[in-house]
Write a structure and sequence with these properties.
The structure holds two protein chains of two kinds. Chain A is an alpha/beta fold. In chain A, about 35% of the residues lie in helices and about 15% in strands. The chains are: A alpha/beta, B alpha+beta.
Chain lengths: ~550, ~160
């Protein structure tokens, strides 16, 4: 005989899961009792939301679904923001929650919450398991759904009695057959041909790369295509890292907080190839950003994204991997007209400008732009949300590494837990988390997770004692009335770091900051650098 | 623009809330909704009549298709399908008016299913337009209660929406 809880652990093992992030509670105790004996590493976070963010960071760096676990009621509801973040950012994730006993469901007993109902708009799919026998099928399906098609979070809610009930034997299914779920990954040949014709006919083509290129794991193939055709590339926030920042064909991030040259390229292009991007309002705020005569080719695995935000002439539904193969195969020896190449080259010169320095402060944009050179080339940078996100998105000169941030949901407090997940996925790589003093205080409870596991994560706090992004909005749209954007009562972050036993330092100039960083890049211990930033430093 | 969607779903807990939730959170309104089992075990059909422009309908179809328990979504083409609603109407009916009301029901091919001293109940199964016509005709007598199902619809000819 085997219990539901044992089956849950065996399912995770069968899926090759080696680490899960979670927080226990009464309703998930049977599972915790079994994972105690398992080889699967359980990482205890300090708040459930961070378990989901850590699973997100893990998933993005490992290419496999991240797993987070919480108990019923408040444990589960705390997960919601993390699940919603993964949903908007299209990150494969399995969220496992304990639930009160099936016979008590609906009676509002202690720590009961309808979590499948509450998460409905934020999950790719969810299960409330009603029979222990169903567990293997549910897990198999959940991992399949989370990691195929447009990736996303799947929630499995498991009542206590389902975890404790025993069945005869455990058999993990070999395959999945969900009648209503057969994502189309193969690009349509006729649409691809139309796309090729349109590219060949265009004078000023441009590629917009999104997070979909990274989800497909085809970064290098994508770069080959751009290089072969010499089509310039801009990216959405989620697509940063598809091209090395200093690549001659790359013009930076587009959008309201993006690079002027990227937006200019988008405006002047006569053909735009959108690759795995949804083009939300922060990317293309108004359709007039593109000229009316621009032809749009949109490649996406999710048919619902095509035509949702931008009018599309040539839709290609499919996995970037397959579609890129088809494009490369059929493009022949086409290259972009000389004139457009030259124009783009002159724009490229303006990509990185040196911002003015304020005496006694660290200039965050300059610091971020120097950061990549100080770390190894495959470094993973996790940016939080706020001005720090924009500083990082526009100035981090990414090489072969990753840039992780929540571009879709924009959840403050993402960077530290996501960095924890990233480090577990890629212990061999440098992991840097950059946050503001606002977002740091939303994620700083995870310093305990970092300290407890001695995770080599370098945290840089850009301290301006403001909620800079909102403050900037208030300056622009609310007559400079700084309602609730001055951070009063902030603690001394150095004392906080010391309390956790984490080495730390403070910098008030770029030279000082860079010297400190150079001194710690080779250490295998976590570190917190607090940079004093001039409060009026703009986002862009 | 009014449109009719025929949706086949896996008959599992929560599927109806998934679908109705999708409408409400994307700001789309439902005019009518009907659910019933099909000839395939485990598969139910949901027929939805709703309003919206071309963009809305296209988005809806795509978003519905993304729901895992949704097997198939088809927009039925105008004029190429038969639709029916079932309605039960309880009409106030003084003895003097009874013959007149029965006559009206006969003209519309509706059935009197219950008679009481001061009212009659009429059953009618037709497309939404004809159902509305009957309601208009009966209004002057005083309608006490209306019970009306959502629209169900099926393709004309050999076309079908099946698994």
């Amino acid at each position: 005989m085997i219990s539901g809880a044992e089956i849950m652990v065996k399912c995770l093992e069968a899926e090759g899961v080696s680490v899960v992030f979670g927080y226990p509670g009464a309703a998930i105790c049977p599972f915790y009792d079994k994972i105690y004996d398992s080889d699967i590493k359980h990482i205890l976070v300090r708040q459930e939301q961070n378990a989901a963010h850590a699973a997100s960071g893990y998933a993005r760096c490992s290419g496999r679904p991240g797993v987070c676990v919480a108990t019923s009621g408040p444990g589960a509801t705390n997960l919601i923001t993390g699940i919603a973040t993964a949903y908007t950012d299209s990150i494969p994730m399995i969220a496992i929650t304990g639930q009160v006993r099936s016979d008590l469901l609906g009676r509002d007993v202690f720590q009961e919450a309808d979590i499948t109902g509450a998460c409905e708009p934020f999950v790719k799919h969810s299960y409330l398991v009603s029979k222990t026998e169903d567990l293997p099928r549910v897990f198999k399906e959940a991992f399949h759904i989370a990691s195929t098609g447009r990736q996303g979070p799947v929630l499995i809610d498991i009542p206590m009695d389902i975890q404790t009930n025993e069945i005869e034997e455990f058999v993990y299914p070999d395959s999945v057959n969900i009648i209503g779920y057969k994502p189309n990954t193969k690009g349509h040949a006729i649409q691809v041909k139309r796309a090729i014709d349109a590219i060949k006919a265009s004078k000023r083509p441009l590629i917009v790369s999104g997070g979909g290129v990274l989800s497909s794991g085809v970064k290098l193939k994508f770069q080959d295509f751009a290089l072969k055709t010499r089509i310039p590339v801009i990216s959405t926030m989620m697509g940063i890292g598809v091209m090395p920042s200093e690549h001659e064909l790359y013009l930076g991030m587009l959008g309201t907080h993006g690079k002027a040259v990227a937006n200019r390229a988008l405006h002047e292009a006569d053909l735009v190839i959108v690759c795995g991007a949804r083009l939300g309002d922060r990317a293309v705020a108004a359709p007039h950003q593109m000229s009316e005569n621009t032809t749009v080719i949109h490649i996406d695995i999710d048919p619902a994204e095509i035509g949702k935000n931008v009018k599309t002439e040539i839709p290609i539904v499919g996995d970037m991997r397959n579609v890129l193969d088809m494009l490369v195969e059929n493009i022949g020896d086409y290259t972009v007209p000389e004139q457009w190449q030259e124009t783009v080259k002159t724009w490229k010169k303006d990509l990185f400008k040196t911002p003015p320095v304020f005496e006694g402060y660290v200039e965050p944009r300059t610091l971020v732009s120097h950061l990549s050179a100080m770390f190894r080339s495959k470094a993973i940078l996790v940016a939080d949300v706020g001005q720090n996100q924009i500083w990082c998105a526009n100035n981090f000169r990414i090489r072969e590494g990753r840039f992780l941030t929540t571009g879709g949901m924009g959840t403050m407090g993402y960077s530290i837990p996501a960095a924890v997940g990233a480090k577990f996925a890629r212990p061999d790589r440098d992991v840097i988390a950059i946050c503001g003093d606002g977002s740091f205080q939303m994620g700083m409870n995870e310093l305990a997770t970092i300290a407890g596991n001695n995770l080599n994560i370098k945290i840089i706090i850009m301290r301006n004692s403001r909620l800079g992004m909102v403050r900037e909005l208030q300056d622009k749209n609310y007559e400079g009335r700084h309602s609730a954007t001055i951070l009063q009562g902030d603690p001394d972050f150095l004392t906080i770091a010391k309390a956790y036993g984490i080495d730390c330092a403070e910098a008030s100039s770029n030279e000082e900051a860079e010297n400190i960083i150079k001194g710690i890049v080779d250490s295998d211990k976590p570190f917190i650098l607090v940079c004093n930033v001039y409060p009026d430093t703009p986002s862009i | 623009m009014q449109y009719t969607l025929s949706i086949l779903v896996e008959n599992q807990a929560g599927v109806l809330s998934k679908i109705s939730g999708l409408f409400s959170r994307r700001g789309f309104n439902i005019d009518s909704l009907a659910v019933g089992v099909t000839n395939t075990p485990g598969v139910s059909r949901i027929t939805i009549v709703a309003n919206g422009d071309e963009y809305v309908v296209e988005q809806l179809e795509k978003q519905l298709n993304k729901l895992i328990p949704v097997i198939k979504v088809k927009r039925l083409n105008d004029g190429e399908f038969i639709s029916r609603e079932l309605i039960l109407i309880k009409v106030h009916c003084a003895a003097a008016k009874r013959a007149e009301i029965i006559k009206t029901a006969e003209i519309m091919q509706a059935k009197i299913v219950d008679v009481a001293p001061s009212c009659v109940t009429i059953e009618y199964c037709e497309c939404a337009n004809r159902v509305n016509t009957l309601i208009d005709l009966l209004k002057p007598y005083g309608i006490r209660e209306i019970v009306r199902t959502g629209t169900v619809a099926i393709d004309r000819g050999t076309a079908s929406v099946s698994v």
